[in-house]
Task: inverse folding
């Protein structure tokens, strides 16, 4: 039997939780079983699960079929193995241009190019760059990103006297995406009525 204090505390927690916007996505440090235990509090694992709009009408209003499914069914975002990035430079709005490939973003659950939309996706890439050989060097040391290791290349041609350093060809895209830390993402669908 619950006492008045615990009933009051539960009501306060429920009222506080309902202040969150429907569709709020948060990182969660627990495993998938622990995330599933949060369903009774209105939180669901962002694993692409198929839901019925009649069971989650407020979440459907936010997501619609952005992440897949055909109405009256819809899918939760599938955020396994990815990190989140804020939308930038939407049509008609001032942005920061920090997402230079935003026009090439694809659908959340498709390869169709949809541009810079909420829950759109990008594949991994590395920013275009060149490597210069040090002037007068016969050997080139290249650091292996993120490992602390380096590799020595002996086959670069030594620049002749008066020539500029030799450079490699440009490789990659417009940006380098960061190393990330694994969490489970959960989305708020609202407390059951």
Result:
């Amino acid at each position: 039997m619950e006492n008045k204090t615990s009933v009051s505390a539960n009501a306060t927690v429920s009222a506080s939780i309902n202040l969150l916007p429907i569709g709020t996505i948060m990182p969660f440090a627990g495993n998938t079983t622990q995330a599933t235990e949060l369903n009774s509090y209105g939180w669901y694992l962002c694993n692409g699960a198929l839901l019925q709009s009649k069971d989650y009408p407020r979440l459907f209003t936010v997501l619609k079929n952005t992440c897949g499914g055909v109405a009256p069914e819809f899918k939760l975002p599938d955020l396994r193995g990815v990190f989140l990035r804020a939308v930038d430079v939407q049509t008609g709005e001032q942005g920061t241009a920090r997402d230079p490939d935003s026009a090439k973003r694809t659908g959340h659950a498709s390869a169709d190019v949809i541009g810079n939309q909420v829950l759109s996706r990008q594949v991994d890439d590395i920013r275009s760059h060149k490597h210069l050989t040090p002037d007068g060097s016969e050997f080139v040391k290249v650091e292996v990103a993120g490992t602390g290791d380096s590799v020595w290349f002996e086959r670069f041609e030594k620049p002749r006297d008066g020539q500029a350093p030799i450079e490699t060809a440009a490789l990659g895209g417009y940006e380098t995406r960061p190393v990330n830390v694994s969490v489970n993402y959960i989305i708020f669908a609202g407390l059951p009525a």
